[in-house]
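Posting here for the record, re: glutamine.
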Amino acid sequence: MKLKVCWMYHDIMDLYGDKGNMMVLKKRCLDRDIQFELDTCGIGQKKDLSEYDLIFLGGGADKEQISLIPDLLSRKENIQKAMDENTFILLICGGYQLFGQYYIAANNQKIKGLQFYDYYTDTGKQGSRCIGNIVIDANLDGIKTRIVGFENHGGQTLNVKHPLGKVIHGYGNSFDAGQEGFYDGKILGTYLHGPLLPKNPVVADFVIYKSLKKRNPDFKFEDLKPLNETFEKGARDTLFKRFNIGG
Ligand code: GLN
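Prediction output follows.
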């Protein structure tokens, strides 16, 4: 089996080690004899995104988001085709914001989003940002998991119809949302950097499973061979202890 990934705007959207997500996917695939092919797509590069099993878009500062938006909007039809053909999409922070209606940057500039979803992102109060470690409880197609990460965003994402999870510690979609991210079976958007996948092997495997399903419709989550997760567990336990919550 093979997993083909396209990391969009890899050169400008890579905040807080979002690249680590790609490294983890690669390792967890290779450890299971699943071939892993990582491609990138920068501004102006010709690519058919529907050829991939997974599209990944990381986080970025307002400046980077503004610079890539004309290119991203020009790919709207192709991204829609990819989603229709079951390419899975993983979006972190700035990338997550751009799949909604719009994002109002800290300088009040309104950036039009891809508008695939109803959610939109307003700017927070002048100079205020949601920053810190975050823990959420999520339900991924029936798989219940506690997810840990780090958030740093000014944007306040509202009108989220299908949140990824309930906030246990930290902020999430907005200062008082109580909910974090977006998941509707086709895209998983989240404010969690950290990066997300190294500390959350269940999410990493879930992303692999959803992506493999494009070419292998009968593939099941349980088909992924268990791996040694001693380090991952240690990293998670440290955080849980610090916040006095259970894993
Ligand atoms: N620039 C966006 C914000 O501040 C996204 C930041 C990020 O990707 N961490 O809300």
